[in-house]
Automatic annotation (TrEMBL):
InterPro entries cross-referenced by the UniProt entry: GlcNAc_MurG (IPR006009), Glyco_trans_28_C (IPR007235), GlycoTrans_28_N (IPR004276)
Function noted in UniProt: Cell wall formation. Catalyzes the transfer of a GlcNAc subunit on undecaprenyl-pyrophosphoryl-MurNAc-pentapeptide (lipid intermediate I) to form undecaprenyl-pyrophosphoryl-MurNAc-(pentapeptide)GlcNAc (lipid intermediate II).
Main location: membrane
Compartment list: Cell membrane
Gene Ontology CC entries for this record: plasma membrane
Gene Ontology MF annotations: undecaprenyldiphospho-muramoylpentapeptide beta-N-acetylglucosaminyltransferase activity
Catalytic activities: di-trans,octa-cis-undecaprenyl diphospho-N-acetyl-alpha-D-muramoyl-L-alanyl-D-glutamyl-meso-2,6-diaminopimeloyl-D-alanyl-D-alanine + UDP-N-acetyl-alpha-D-glucosamine = di-trans,octa-cis-undecaprenyl diphospho-[N-acetyl-alpha-D-glucosaminyl-(1->4)]-N-acetyl-alpha-D-muramoyl-L-alanyl-D-glutamyl-meso-2,6-diaminopimeloyl-D-alanyl-D-alanine + UDP + H(+)
EC number: 2.4.1.227
Protein name, UniProt field: UDP-N-acetylglucosamine--N-acetylmuramyl-(pentapeptide) pyrophosphoryl-undecaprenol N-acetylglucosamine transferase
Signal peptide location: none
Amino acid sequence: MSNFVISCGGTGGHLAPGIAIAEALQESGHHCRLIISNKDVDSRLVKNYPQLQYARSPGMGFSMSPVKFVKFNIEQIRALVFTMKLMREFKADAVIGFGGFLTVGAVFAAFLTGVPVMLHEANRRAGRAIRMLAGFARRVYLPPGVNIKGLPRRMIHHCGYPIRKEIQRMPQDEARAKLGLDVTGKLLLILGGSQGATALNTWVTDNFEALAKDNISVYCITGLNKTAGGAIERISSDGQTARAVFTPFVDSMAVALSAADLVVARAGAGSIAEFARCRLPSILVPYPYSADDHQMANAQFLEQQGGAMVVQESELDRLLGEVTDLIFNDWLIKRFRENLERLDRANPVDRIVKDMASIAADPA
């Protein structure tokens, strides 16, 4: 059995697949240490997985601001020293990085100590860290149809996004009961990713009166440090009570996804994969300032596959009409769910874990 270091902290989109891989590795008898950041989102998510072992690394995100750029480089040096010490003490056989600022130190530490490196890119446009570090890797896992210029094909394995095993669709009534939601009509989920989305949170408060008239309730996951929790109630046109519930975070995303009829969300790769797993149609509002506009690439791919609609943030004035048209269109919702089921047929976790184990066992 092998010892794996998994660099996956900083955002939910990096941490969640790292957890999925770590769980599968442990079930196969391997040992893991997950490198995470000191961010609140990491702390909140990992508390649900006490069976895994974590190491909090120094580090901060990249910035072109002169002062922050200096701090970034100092933190990268600290992260490199931290990771090299961790790898020596843990006797690491292999390292896998999921992108972000923590992966840089982990990969250089592995390179300097002769430990094989693997990288996973979830988005349909590879991020800066993955592109920069790909030349140090023995294997790079990319979404189907995505490549990195100049990278030999033998180094690439095309696969999907590793999803945590508890992300499974459950009966809608059961899910709503778990959330404590007593609603009779449609339920719209608003999800801005692990960091939240102020534009989507504001859209809910601005448009809830109109949604309530059609007996559409809202469950809005605002993001940590975005908006305090709370609830609004309104009487719909047929006398039913529609509710808007605001919560900073949910510990069970599968419950929230299963409770909803439709989700309006950012277009992170992890969110999209979980929508597919739970067969939840979506209207995607890509974050317009994402690196390399990768969220738009993610969203357009899912729309082309018939699993979502795309509305740009600059067009939020038409979002209300799109929501009400789609959420009551049973035929189109059914088609979306069928297409999401087709996209979710391949589970990449077992394939990735098997490949990782073979690389760790043969580091030459």
